[in-house]
Amino acid sequence: MAKKVETVNMVDRFAEFKELKNIDKTTMISVLEESFRKVLANMFDSDENFDVIMNPDKGDCEIYQNLKVVADDDVDNENMEIGLSEFFSSLNSANRSTIFTVSTFFAITL
Fold first, then answer.
1. Do 68 and 35 form a contact (C-beta atoms < 8 A)?
2. Prediction pTM value
3. Any residues with CB less than 8 A from the CB of 55 and at least 6 apart, and which?
4. Inter-axis angle of helices 10-21 and 25-44, to 10 degrees?
5. By C-alpha distance, which of 76, 72, 74, 67 is closest to 96?
6. Which of 2-6, 49-53, 58-62 has the least mean pLDDT?
């Protein structure tokens, strides 16, 4: 028999927590965002290339990792960069929520 999946309504949870702890909404959202950032920093050594977007009105939390696209042989830090081949293969993947920055360098000889 299949297990019943319980959906957590973040809007309701935010409201309950706000009332129980007597914390204003802005402070609560800041604490949640900072908590996510600390977890990201622990997992990836830094949170500087992540965007954390909290929307308490809708109950949404979105986290995006921003990676710089570089040549396959130039990947120095996999938490900050992605090789061109992996970039193209990830474009076809539905499970990746990553924002890519494609850097192009031009050498001009005069």
1. no
2. 0.64
3. 61, 62
4. 110
5. 67
6. 2-6
